[in-house]
Structure prediction request, 606 residues.
Amino acid sequence: MCGIVGCTTHGAEVVGGLIESLKRLEYRGYDSAGIAAQTPTGIGIVRRVGKIRELESHLLTEPLHSSTAIGHTRWATHGRPTEANAHPHRCGKLVVVHNGIIENYLELRQELGDAVFQSETDTEVVAHLVAKLWNGDLAATVRLAVGRLEGSFALALMHEDMPDLIVAARRDSPLVIGVGDAAHWLASDVPALLPWTRRVIYLEDGDVAELRPDTLRVTDTSGKVQQRDIVEISWSAEMAEKGGYAHFMLKEIHEQPTTVANALLGRIAEKSGLVTLEGLNIDDDTLRTLRRVSIVACGTSWHAAQVGRFLIEQDSGLPVEVDYASEAIYREPLLGRDDLLIAISQSGETADTRAALRRGREAGAHTLVICNVAGSSMARDSTNVLLTYAGPEIGVASTKAFMGQLTVLSLLALKLGAVRGRLTDDVMRQRLHELKTLPHAIEAALRTSDEARSIAGELAAARDALFIGRGVNYPIALEGALKLKEISYIHAEGYPAGEMKHGPIALIDAQMPVIAVATRSATYPIMAGNVEEARSRAARVIAVVSEGDDRVARAAWRTLVVPAVPENLSPLVNIVPLQLLAYWTAVARNADVDQPRNLAKTVTVQ
Ligand code: AGP
Prediction:
């Protein structure tokens, strides 16, 4: 996610302070940074690819002396991480920085026909649009312009003729104002404001704010003044980076409803039943002739691949193989031009997955990367990239990135099913409606946190745990086991529930907790049987069940109740209580939740 900062005050130098504020937003991830500052000779702009220190060292030699400035860290989505694509963007006397995705930027670029664009970004469109609509009043013109924008945005703009004014606008991307004495600050998140003030105002969707040193005016897009309360922040700076959560992992678990919404943004048209996957540059005829899909990944991404297998086979009729990347690279790829090789990777840097992707490409397969980092090696090396838009994932244990992967895989399965004539328009409309409403079910699943915390108090004493699931939720049992083992260090195994009688049931006794994914599904009756079998051998069964469940709930020791959703979407809901169970168990064991021992966020060696 990009980061925005800004400050307007009287007479004081603000650029150095804004650099410090940008550093407080580094946790959001970025690949370039820039500053625009009002100076006596106009607005000066400095932008650099790479870390903020690149910008800082330039400013030490060529300082920008200013009391009104805006700054930005860019997390590349549209357009590679280059200086030309870095923010701020300029159009004449106007400059703009942006966080979010302007979905209709291509149409606006066409509408702005004679405008000369300096970048590949969606953001630059905003500067040209404001210039085109210019009526002499920056805030009034911004109110007009944002009415033409589709998608999500947090914007900050300045105009050379108004040297102490910053105008900000937000829709779906956060913006916070800092209130000082004869100064106002602006930032994407609270941590960037704390060095200067603890008095903040959270802008709301549709707000347009005019910041001057001594005055602040907030209106809606019609110009009607909006009253916004000042909030006193009591958090420490470190807590503020985590949005008030104790750990990044907990913050990222709670971001998952937004993750799904962001992964869907601009990709689904519910009324027409169409899925548009910008970044998938394989034409429909080729998609129709594909004979097989092969997916390679590691760890949590491999679990996402296993869910993807169910979804793609069910919707498209294509056979899907899933392989650990670390295994695939030591076998003949046996792939060709009728095959689609998908590599799934949060970081886009995992060595085994990169190697497997390269071998598949060399063997002649069509390749597609599902990734969370636009500027990563895998994303840069591939002609087909589907970004998960989960934003940087700081916790080593992957949660929201996994959710983004499952969302993108759901869209890909629908796209293949529609193109290959297996899903009618009516079915597509229904399925897209179900996807669009999914964030509400995930919000509800997050409310199992207290129950998960209570169960964790006892689970924390266990030495081992067995996770079981069936069908599309078998990979969720695997993922739940991985979450528990990697952050609490309890030995945990995931198993297909149908395998219990073929060995694992020998393990079960009162010391072996069994975590069963037993929500409403075609396999529910037989899952209930598995729970009862475990219960009859004195196991404490913790069951993820659907609202209204009575059979499994009777046999289970404890239940984590989630909303019932269509079976193909249940993995995205059922994983939430298991993430929370792992999190609270690790907390109960005083483990290092965000940085578990021996683990790295990205494994760049084989
Ligand atoms: C997930 O919780 C783990 N941290 C790990 O298994 C991770 O999923 C794996 O290393 C793959 O990483 P990638 O998605 O960045 O390729």
In short: The chain has a mean pLDDT of 94. The chain is about 35% helix and 25% strand.
